[in-house]
Every structure is written in structure tokens, then in C-alpha cells.
Amino acid sequence: MNELNSVASASRTSNGSNNDAYSSTSIASATTSSTRPRALASLKSPRRVWYCALFISSLIAMGSTFEAVKMQRRYTAPTIPPTPTQQWSVASITITFLLTFLTLSLQMASPAKATKYLHGTKLELGLILLLSGFTCSSVGTATNPASGMAVNASGGVSFGNLFYSTWASFISAMGALLSFLRTERGFDVSSELSSRGNRFRTWAILIVVALIVMGSSASCYDAKCDELYNDIRPVKYCRRAAFGVSAGCIGCVASLAVVAMRLSCATMTLEGRANRTIFIIEGILSVVLFCIFGFAVAYLTSEKGPGAPLGNLYYSSWVAFALTFFVATSCFEEFQAAKSMILLGRQPPPQEEQYSDIEREREALNSDANSIAMPDERIPYDNDNASIAERGDSQAGQSTSASSGFSQRVTGSVGEVQIN
Asked: How far, in Å, CA of 340 to CA of 349, rounded?
């Protein structure tokens, strides 16, 4: 009987150990299966989407560039070699495609090695800067009216695939650069611009757009108005192209000056007149640029203007006009708000959600002080009650002055540059 009990206990012990081993194995497998997706997710590059977009756009741009160069070579003698512009355009977009293809291949074939040697390293930063440079060069050569690849001599788009694919490649490369700065260096350009206000971001965008207007107008002027290559100069066309160069230059310099003043001179307090001066300069420049780009749209995009056909000059001039309209409208609205504050002689009403607690606290202190200061006739008014009343009055006065100071500090200014 004892032998049977020992055998049964031994069998139960062995079964329990097997169950424990099975449960530990299942837990380990479950843990491994749950951590595997996390590990794979950590190996993925946060810029894979931008690399994929750059790969597709550069592939389309490379095929379109080959086709454009082939079409141009048909009208030249076989003995004449390709021009330097054609050679550089083919080389830049081909290098962009090959580098993007190798990067995506490494990420898909060996994610661990890509994470170790590429993701977030100086090598990736150098790669992204190189891709940005090549794509910028591709846009310049393809959309130059003098080269005649994606844009004809009049500045209009003659090869849509090449025109839009090169711009898509450049935007994808810049997106990868901004993503690297945000994830690896902790510098979020979009958040920095948004934190300073919508008008500041508009001024920053206007710098780039004005540069495009200036460069496109200069390219159109060189293509048709250069005395070395053209015997007959269209006078009206050339004058309007020169006006486009001047408008783009003025817009770029003015926008850059406003951005520099907002970064270096603007303060978050109400002391001094720096913010008021910046706002006045900003308002004057916005009106001047609105008038300049209004005339630019009218003259450049007319029938005999260099921006009449769809192209860089057409799009950039309209975008610049829209941006200056937004800036001028924003300045006018803030001026009206500041004017109403001065005329009414009081601060704008604070938001109820932010200041309801402060107002309730001030009313409670005032009511307590009044109730203490006006005692009942049945209670003798002795020195103790007088001291309590004086203490209540002082607390109420301090609370009222503090809350009014807080309201003035927060709501006593208007606009992005805190004018008062």
C-alpha cells in the first residue's frame, strides 16, 4: 500500500513539473511573439515613406529625362556632343535614383544592419543632404527655359511628367531631411514655425516663393531677352520679366528682414516699444508687398507676359500674391483689435474657461471681507473685530490687485508680437 502511494505521488509530481514546464514554455513563446513586432517596428526607419516617395518620383524623372534628352538629340547633328546641361541633368537624377534604391534595398534586406549603420547616423544625414542637392539641381536644369527640357523657351510646361516628377523628388528629399532633424536631432521645424504664429510661418514661406519668382523671371529673361543669343527682343515681354525679377528680389529681402526682426528683436513681455515697432514695419511691408505682387500677377501672367503659360513663374506669382494677402489681412485684424482696446479703455474680455476660477475666488474674498467689515448690530464692535475686518480688506485688496495684474499681463496685448 505504501508503495502504491509513493508511485501515485511520484506520478503527480512528474505531471506537475511537466505542466509547469509547458506553462513556462508557453509564456516564453507568448512573450517572444509579443516582443517580436516591437523589435521589428523598432528596426523600421521613420523616413521609409519619404524614401519610397523619392524612389518612385526619381524613377519617373529619370525615364522622362532620358526621353527629353533623346527628343532634343534628334534635332542636332550626331557629331555634336550632348550639352553640359543635358549631361548634368541625366547624371543628377540617375545618382538620386541609385542612392535611393540602395537605401531601400538595405532596409528591406537587412533591417538590423540598416539600423546599426544607417538610421540616425551621420552617414544618413550626409546621404539626405546629397539627395537634396541632386534633386534641387534636377529641378533647376529641368525647369530652366534655356535648357528646353521640361519647360519651353516661353516658360510654359512642355513635358509634364518631367516637370512634376522633379519637383516631387525635391519635396520628398526635403521631407526626409525635416524628418531626420525632428527624430534624430530633436528640432521640429514645423512646430517651431507654428509656435511663433501663423503669420511668422507665412513670412518664412514667402521667402522661398519670392526666390522662385525671382529665379523664374531671370530664366525667362535670359531665354528671350539676352542680346548675345537673340537678335529680336520682345520689349514688352522683357520689361515684364525684369519687373518679375525686381518683385521677387524685393519680396525675398523684405520677408527675410521681417523674419530676422521677429527672431532677434521681438519680446514676450510688454516692456519697451520693440514689438510695436516690429508690428508697424510688418504692416507697412505687408501692404507694399501686396501691391507689388498684385501688379506682378497682373503683368506676369497676362497674355504677353513671361508667366502666361503654366510653369514655375505662374504658380509662384499667384502663391506669393495669396501669401501677402493673408499677411496683410492678419495685420489689419490685429490693428483693429488693438484700436478697439485703446478706444474702449479696457482690456478685452478674458476667456471664461481660463479665468472663471480667478473671478470666483476674487468674488468670494470680497464677499467675505464685506461680511466681516459690516458686523451685526447685536455684536459689539471691539478691537478684535476691527482687526479681522482690516485683515479681510487687505486680503481682498491683494487678491484684486493680483488678479488684475494677471489679467493685464496675459490679455493686455494683441497679436503674435504682443503689441499693447
From this structure: 12
**Which residues, listed in sequence order, are joined to residue 414 by a DSSP beta bridge?**
419
The answer to whether residues 359 and 400 touch, using CB atoms and an 8 Å cutoff, is no
Condensed to tens digits (0 to 9), the pLDDT of residues 21-48 reads 444 444 444 444 444 444 444 557 788 8
Helix %, strand %, coil % for the chain, to 5? 75, 0, 20
Calpha distance 272→168 (Å, rounded): 46
The Cα 167–Cα 413 span in angstroms is 42
What is the rounded CA–CA span in Å between residue 282 and residue 134? 36
Measured CA to CA, the distance from residue 351 to residue 148 in angstroms comes to 58
d(Cα 56, Cα 36) in Å, to the nearest integer?
30
Widest Cα–Cα separation across the chain: 123
**pLDDT tens-digit readout, 231-278:** 566 778 888 889 999 999 999 999 999 988 888 876 665 555 777 888
pTM of the entire structure? 0.65
Residues 263, 405: contact at Cβ < 8 Å?
no
Q: State the cell numbers at 297.
A: 500677377
